[in-house]
Amino acid sequence: MTRQSARHQPVHGFTVIEILLVIALFGLLSALAVPFYSSFQTQQRLEGKRAEIVSLIRTAQVSSMAGADSDSHGFHVEPTSVTFFTGSAYTPGHPDAFTVDLGPQMTVSTSFGDTALFQAPTGTPDRFGTLTLGLSTRSYTITINELGTVSYND
Fold first, then answer.
1. Calpha distance 128→35 (Å, rounded)
2. Residue 7: inside a domain, yes or no?
3. CATH number for the domain that contains residue 28
4. Model pTM?
């Protein structure tokens, strides 16, 4: 009788330790990525609201210059919203007004009071200064000068 030698067949697959190490690595990378993604989302939301507010202010100015509705136009600022309106004064709940709501944790404040009106037909504002749009971690400044030019920081 002949002795058969034991042949070693190569084993294919992963060990339990290798699988656990990969899972731990993915968990660690995910835990590190979540705060960065959250910060990115917050910044994008803030930049989007800034663009909406700048657009609303420019719409009020252009509407006044164009003589839309044969009246002046302006905007009203509250801590969590900015509202476009037609007429010489802001009237809460007016059907022609439209509002940019800022959402949770975002606020806006001004250096010139809560309402600015653009005069027809020149488009010059009756008040000028800065609006500050922000969260606890980041803020943007929107500036309106005495000629009505709207600019903002990046």
1. 37
2. no
3. 3.55.40.10
4. 0.80
